Amino acid sequence: MRNGTKSKKEARPRGRPRGFITSEVLERVRDVFLAKGFAAASLDELCAAAGLNRPSLYAAFGDKEQLYISMLRHVGEKSVEAMDAVLSGPEPIEQRLGRIYKGAIDIYTKPPNRPGCIIVGTATVEATSHPAIGATANEILAGFEKAFERGFIKSDLKPLPSPAERASMAGAIMTATGIRARLGVPATELRAFTRSMIPVICR
Amino acid sequence: MRNGTKSKKEARPRGRPRGFITSEVLERVRDVFLAKGFAAASLDELCAAAGLNRPSLYAAFGDKEQLYISMLRHVGEKSVEAMDAVLSGPEPIEQRLGRIYKGAIDIYTKPPNRPGCIIVGTATVEATSHPAIGATANEILAGFEKAFERGFIKSDLKPLPSPAERASMAGAIMTATGIRARLGVPATELRAFTRSMIPVICR
DNA sequence: AGATATTTATGCGAAACGGTACAAAATCAA
DNA sequence: TTGATTTTGTACCGTTTCGCATAAATATCT
Question: What is the reported pTM?
């Protein structure tokens, strides 16, 4: 027991404990970034939503770009988990895909602000000025495609197009849906679109 | 000749003539909006790029949002013209589609800033705060799909999926490509993606 | 020429921006 | 209790932002 009694839970750090939970803060700033985008979201709004003062936010997450990237990663991880939960199910792949798209559209068109997909809807515009944001968004989208691919592998579709090709197509449909939702296309139209695409992907 | 000699050219307006050409200004501010997005593009940058002073820009186009929308419409019209020129050609539809995507990718990945598609890449994020921008972007995307549809009608593909369905799929592929280009996906990968999607669309 | 109309140019001014310095508060180690 | 360490709150700095007020410049119409 030389190196400190780590006990079960890791020893509490030295100084004053934090008055917030990281994941909660990330989910609150997510709502601000969703509504305004990265550039138009001010630190005042972000701090107010997070319930933190500015120096606390900075000490915990770094500057605005790093905070945004942390939020993106958080959203991405939770999304992939949710996708895997559905895509590993026992139903035929067409049905699993339908549930993925339906769930996505529900989120994308949630009133009152039809926010669309936060990744393609808010990260894309910043990618030219903030390459790290573009790279992060790309990683997350690649993660989505990998999740789709796992779903296609677990299916009895013909081997061609390959699961990877089908996955990249499913991802493109998802991307386009997330964009069009934010642009104001109503949910019914989005659902009709994804429903008509599924048989094409699974041909 | 009562109502004034309108001659051929309409009579010049009364006061001092403008020192700029509307389409040129729109194409110069387009470059700024492409690089920075709507929110992060400052009026100083826009004026400098346009070669106009601030009050001139305001008198000619209104505020920043109206200027941006005028620019979007300008880009949209020229794009549809270019698409129709290709899509009405004599080649098989697969080949016409390939040329459309190749041309788009060339623009989307142009160095040094891989700007992607200005419509889905910069308008989308603003749609929640500026509904007029979202509506305009949607109109333009619908115009793209109509152009695709005209191309599919002029082809000897099977009647199902319908030309409209094929067009919405082709549009989704275009959208996803424009997004991923801005996010940093290299041109070679984008070309491989669209090339693999064409046979699926034209099945 | 003189009056009228429109566009240019300079520059301002109030507000909002991102980021940080500094001291008070809260906890742990000894 | 005393000192070390981390978080919190207030207040501020310099810069940049958008939009406009005002006056000079350039054209047509009478």
Answer: 0.93
